[in-house]
Write a structure and sequence with these properties.
The complex is a heterotetramer, with two copies of chain A (401 residues) and two copies of chain B (149 residues). Chain A is α/β, with parallel strands linked by helices and 401 residues long. Helices cover 40% and strands 16% of the residues of chain A. Chain A folds into two domains: 3-27 and 292-400, Aspartate Aminotransferase, domain 1 (Alpha-Beta Complex); 34-289, Aspartate Aminotransferase, domain 2 (3-Layer(aba) Sandwich), CATH 3.40.640.10. In chain A, the strands form four sheets. In chain A, strands 2-8-7-6-5-3-4 form a seven-stranded mixed sheet, with helices on both faces. Chain B has six helices and four strands. The chains are: A alpha/beta (401), B alpha+beta (149). The structure holds pyridoxal-5'-phosphate (PLP) (2 copies). One pyridoxal-5'-phosphate (PLP) sits between chains A (88-90, 118, 120-121, 166, 170, 195, 197-198, 218, 359) and C (248, 271-272).
Chain lengths: 401, 149, 401, 149
């Protein structure tokens, strides 16, 4: 039995013992250790960073620096100055879409994304195309629900400026072969931006091995606090890119005639950063590291194969995405029951799932559905949660048949 | 009756299975398009108004059981009524589902009262309201697209 | 005696009883009630918002909506859709500088700021000028250390597109007559953006009475968590402005051909918001409201006049800014002792002050100093803190004479 | 000696009050401009190197007592020395203040050792280092602007 037994580490299940929380792909619950770290920081360590000439400020600055290094280590980056703290994945992608397109691309070049991207990895790039005269290209997915690599190779060319792909689809769960993607893209001189929002809690990431140019994720999907995320970028690219947001902390000198900007990482961190959240993210990374990805992946596999076994037996169910080489979630529809009705009925049995377009409307269009239901699994889920899900779904089927 | 049973009453489920007045309506005098961007509910409502009465009505589109049943029952309700008669019903319905209707307002709702259970499900109020918002829009002659979010 | 006695409400002073924290203008410490709210939210209420069809998600959405309304009430806005949550003041100013300049200004128009602005209210506007062919104009300050109203009137004209001014200077403490400013600016057809970062914790704000078009502040300077801030904007302007960052939650429909955007406030809130931080900000506003601005202003006045009395007697001190109609801080230099040396020596006596350019280099240039020391006061400060400051400063004077 | 007294030793205070070799140096063979954007310390360092020896040296600018005294004592230290002699001193000094110097390294530092107290004040290490980083830059012939942050 490779199931983890971490439920008791999450205070939310103390407050709501009856809940089967199956919406971790939207946001994970927080372990005691992360909540305590944030509380402890506010209670005895809080100060703003970078400028404090007093001890509290020095320690807070150090704490942030330590977390930056922990993030560097967590994703295998070379240098901690390549780790930019943002308010989340969305802000990170906006930064890259904007600054990279403006600074290092030429009008007429292409941005290549896929049919299965999250809106966060579509709209900022779409807007960059409008603003900088670039063209958006869409790579289709296979009938199996994975990136169509043949189509990808055909679409990729010397005209490609940026390849922006999700590491793991938040709807299909499929894992993109990003190492191969980076190799192919670099051969054509394109930069690669990976949306790692769904990946960092489930698979080990080593950006140097992957050789991606940019990688981003959100703390709140990694057992950490809301309000903070990470952009990794190769130092030489971040150095060459124009600044994005501006203000305090990211400048070197300001005068009304001329402003010069600070070095990395400060150059891209305008204003007071989410200090306590960064420290909390540090605790989340420690939490994940203590469990280890071997155990996490074995757990994911145990839960998701059990879930698939049970789900696939339900009458009238259609499950999307591949059945192997995938992450820990299942998106599905039931014949005759709309996903919103499913979610409402499940909620009455204390089963929390998501229903809707999952911020992936082009993917919904591809499957010609308006919405899907999605159950997503995490370290605190158990096979009991799956049993609860299945019995609630049986009730749905009963109501709607 | 459990909260759930009061939401998914048999009449709602049956309208969901077999919606009334479903399809296009050409020609029509009034039209509106209602979408709920959060959940993807998406309906068109068509009215043909002659001598100030709704002589024909239809809807098409897709959505959850609540929004579809609401649309289906709406079409039954408005058929044959004048705009002046429809407006207070619409207002009363929107109050019913947001739990602000008076006893008198409820009284005029007839079988629409089966939607009262929706008020216990705040996230679903918009589903029941969507087609009524489209109606509101259609009869205000704006012929636009409306959205409930 | 109008001094508040709130020190025991702040756990940090339990952890460090000997500290005189005089750096609240940089960031305030957090009261028990805010820390507890955040902790409680993570422990028993956490879920992401907007899409949750289950109870936890519904309650979290409601909590955020309630805080939005609390903010609306706190600053006297008309409609809660005029309250945009951002990651802080800096992000809010970047949003306005960008979107307003792009959408509602014409090349050749001017942006009028002042000599005393924080870098956050300089650099984004400077960059907007570069990007949208606008011209930056600088209003000088008087010898008293306040906005020069005569100069302001002379600089303002029909060519002015945006007036961007700080409500309270983070260096001088002077209070800008923003109501008059708005009236004058609107006569010329200019929009007014107020940087309220230093104001919201010290003076009551009513944006409708002030009639400003935009107002922004950060939670972390208002006893709230880091990682969240507020942009208020008049609905009609926010509606007319193009979107800024994009991604999930701010769209209506996405297709590769055409994306349409959600209504306010979502239009300007791309991605998962800082949920727990918003809830924490709600608690901070409750904290401040429970004290009330009458009591806060009486306390500020008591502390700052006592501080001024003691500081002004020190040998070789020069204090900047006006002595009346000012907020609760003092920036100063000592003859022969550099501000950094002052801060280091003060830290040995557990007195936390700031030293540096305070993100206001143009103001430093104006006074021809490289740096200043600044003591800033808040609800938890007492006259004991001031005594501790003065005795530590006397030691500095001794070392350097 | 308290931490504070070990930081602000009399020799440091006196160099702060009366810095040595303060001012311009024209002509010069080497120059660098060091700034610490966080605190506004801002110094220029000039060297005149003849026959591989520093025959003249000066600095100008402004900063805190630590950075100014460090600059003043640097000028005294390098005067008359060859670049080859200066490099190990510079390296040892930078190690001293970051608390990584060996006993042998400390031994070659002479009166520069009074800066050892800085290691107790991590935020001030950059102040002591600034002029030495400028020296490093100047003798690497890049003639640029360097910044310690
Ligand atoms: C007057 C003023 N404006 C803007 C800011 C920037 O605020 P933040 O760093 O929270 O974005 C500050 C604080 O640093 C400030 O004092
Ligand atoms: C694949 C993917 N990309 C991007 C995002 C956006 O992340 P955030 O909302 O934290 O910015 C999400 C989550 O919502 C996601 O699942």
């Amino acid at each position: 039995m490779s199931e983890l037994t971490l439920r008791q580490e999450f205070p939310i299940f103390n407050a709501h013992p009856e809940i089967a929380y199956l919406d971790s792909a939207a946001s994970t619950q927080k372990p005691r250790m992360v909540i305590d770290r944030i509380q402890g920081f506010y209670e005895s360590e809080y100060a703003t960073i970078n400028r404090g000439l007093y001890e509290l400020g020095y320690h807070a600055t150090n704490n942030v620096a330590k977390t930056r290094d922990a993030v560097r280590h967590f994703i295998g980056a070379k240098d901690s100055k390549e780790i930019i703290f943002t308010s989340g994945t969305t802000a990170a992608i906006n930064l890259v879409a904007n600054s990279l397109s403006q600074g290092l691309l030429k009008p007429g070049q292409e941005i290549l994304i896929s049919q299965m991207e999250h809106h966060a990895n579509i709209v900022p790039l779409q807007r960059a195309c409008d603003q900088y005269q670039l063209r958006l290209k869409i790579c289709p997915i296979t009938s199996n629900g994975e990136l169509d690599m043949d189509a990808f190779k055909a679409l990729l060319g010397p005209q490609t400026g940026i390849v922006a792909l999700t590491h793991i689809s938040n709807v299909l769960g499929c894992i993109t072969p990003i190492k191969t993607i980076c190799h192919l893209a670099h051969e054509q001189g394109a930069y690669v931006l990976i949306d790692g929002a769904q990946a960092v809690a489930h698979v080990p990431v080593n950006v140097q091995e992957i050789d991606c140019d940019f990688y981003c994720f959100s703390s709140h999907k990694l057992y950490g606090p809301s309000g903070v995320g990470v952009l990794y970028g190769k130092a030489n690219l971040l150095e060459a890119m124009p600044v994005y947001q501006s203000g305090g902390d990211m400048i070197e000198t300001v005068s009304f005639e001329k402003t010069t900007y600070a070095d990395l990482p400060n150059k891209f961190e305008a204003g007071t950063p989410p200090i306590a959240q960064i420290v909390g993210l540090g605790a989340a990374i420690e939490f994940v590291s203590q469990i280890g990805f071997d155990a996490i992946q074995a757990h994911d596999e145990a839960i998701q194969s059990y879930a698939y076994e049970r789900l696939s037996q339900l009458k009238g169910i259609q499950i999307f995405g591949p059945t192997s080489n995938k992450s820990s979630l299942h998106s599905f529809v039931l014949k005759d029951a709309h996903p919103h009705d499913i979610a409402t009925i499940l909620d009455q049995s204390k089963v929390c799932i998501r229903a809707g377009h999952h911020c992936a409307q082009p993917l919904m269009s591809h499957y010609e559905v308006a919405a899907m239901a999605r159950a997503s699994y995490s370290v605190y889920n158990t096979s009991n949660d799956i049993d609860q899900l299945i019995s609630a779904l049986s009730q749905v089927i009963e109501v709607f048949q | 009756m459990s909260r759930l049973a009061s939401l998914y009453q048999e009449m709602i489920l049956s309208h969901n299975r077999s919606p009334q007045n479903f399809g296009d309506l050409d020609p029509h005098t009034h039209h509106s398009h209602g979408v709920n961007p959060v959940c993807g509910d998406d309906f068109h409502l068509y009215l043909f108004v002659e001598d100030n009465r709704v002589s024909k009505v239809s809807f098409k589109g897709q959505g959850c059981a609540i929004s579809k049943a609401s649309a289906s029952i709406l079409t039954e309700t408005v058929l044959g009524k004048s705009i002046q008669e429809i407006i207070p019903i619409k207002d009363a319905f929107l109050k019913l589902i947001s739990d602000t209707a008076s006893t008198e307002e409820k009284a005029q709702l007839g079988k629409l009262k089966i939607f009262e259970g929706v008020k216990e499900f705040p996230v679903r109020v918009k589903c029941a309201a969507l087609i009524w918002r489209a109606l509101e829009d259609a009869i205000s002659q704006q012929h636009g697209q409306i959205s409930t979010e």
